[in-house]
C-alpha cells in the first residue's frame, strides 16, 4: 500500500437492509450479517468458537483489495452467539481470502440469470484508490459474484482441489458438509449493506457544530473536559484533559468518545497500516499479541475495527441472539501473504475490547 494513503481513514455506515429477494450479494459486497460470500476458489469455511466449540455466526464481510496487489481480497469476521462467550477475543475469528481474477473466472460457473443491478451499484471497495468508490460495481457486474454458494459451486471447488477426479472423495466431502449443517444450525444475523465515506469528508461546518454539541453533552454527563474538535482533523490541535476525571476514570474512553462524536453511527473504521482507536487501555504486550502472521511468520499490521454502533444491528428475527462488544480490532499480515492456488482462507488476529459504557450506543 502506498505510504501517502496509509493514514486515510474510511468510515463504514449501515446503508439499508439487504433484501435477498431484491438484491444478490457477492464477494464484492460489503455487508453486515447474512451468509458469507466466499470466492469461487475458496472452500467454504465454518469456524468454531475456541472457548465453547460452537459454530460461529457471520458478522461482517469486507471487500478490501490492496492497491499494489493483483488479488481480489476479502475479510470475514465471525463471532460466537453464546451469551457466556460475548466480548471475548477467543470467541471471534477473522479469515482473509484472496484470488486472482483469472482464477475467479475459471472457477465460477456461468450464471443463468443476470444479477440484480442494485447490488452492483452498492458495491464498495476499501483499497487505496478511494476515488473509485461506487464505480467498482460496474466492473463487478461481470459474473464474478454468484451470491450464496450452491452445491454445484462446492463441487467445482472440490474438483479444483482434486484434479484426479476421485468422485468418492467429492461425494464424501459433500455428504459431510450436508450432515454437519443438518445437525447444527448456524445463527444468521439480518443482512445490511455497508456504505463508505472518508472521515475527512465528515468535517463539514454543520457536522462539526453538531459534533461540538454532542461533545459538550458528553463532558457534562461524564464530568470530564476534552479539547475542542478541529475542523482540519487530528492536525489542528492536541487533546487536553482537565484534572477532573470521567466517572469511569478512563481518559482513553473519553478520547474514543471524542473521536467518534462526529459520526456516532459509524459501524466500522478502516485504515490499513494505520493506528487503531482503543476504547480502553490495551494490554502492555499488545504488540507481541499480533506481531507474527500465522501463515508466513511475517509482521502484522492494523487494518480495521468494528464499532459499538454495530451491536444494535446484529439481530435475528427468530431469536434473542446478541453479540456485544466495545470494539473489535483486526490485524492482518503486512505482506498479505498468499500461496498460489490456495483454496483455504488464512486466519488473522482479532482483539476484542468490552465497552465500558455500552448503553450510550443503544
Architecture blueprint of SSEs:
Layout: E1 10-17, E2 31-32, E3 57-63, E4 71-79, E5 92-100, H1 101-107, H2 117-121, H3 136-140, H4 151-161, H5 167-183, E6 192-198, H6 205-222, H7 251-260, E7 268-270, H8 286-289, E8 300-306, E9 327-333, E10 346-347, E11 349-353
Antiparallel strand pairs: 1-6, 1-7, 2-3, 2-6, 3-4, 4-5, 5-10, 7-8, 8-9, 9-11
Please provide a written account of the structure.
By secondary structure, this protein is α+β, with helices and mostly antiparallel strands. It folds into two domains: 3-199 and 269-361, no CATH class; 204-261, no CATH class. It has eight helices and eleven strands. It has helices spanning 101-107, 117-121, 136-140, 151-161, 167-183, 205-222, 251-260, 286-289, and strands spanning 10-17, 31-32, 57-63, 71-79, 92-100, 192-198, 268-270, 300-306, 327-333, 346-347, 349-353. An eleven-stranded antiparallel β-sheet has the order 10-5-4-3-2-6-1-7-8-9-11. Mean pLDDT is 76; it is low at 1-6, 117-124, 129-155, 167-175 and 228-248. It comes from Parambassis ranga (Indian glassy fish). One of its GO terms (cellular component) is cytoplasm.
CA(first)-CA(last) distance: 36 Å
The structure class reads alpha+beta
Strand order of the largest sheet: 10-5-4-3-2-6-1-7-8-9-11
Query: Helix-strand pattern, N to C?
Result: EEEEEHHHHHEHHEHEEEE
What is Rg?
21 Å
- Low-confidence region ranges: 1-6, 117-124, 129-155, 167-175, 228-248
Q: Count every helix, treating DSSP H or I runs of 4 or more residues as helices.
A: 8
Which percent bin holds the helix content?
10-25%
Give the CA-based shape: globular
Number of domains: 2
Give the total of beta strands.
11
Beta-strand residue fraction: 15-25%
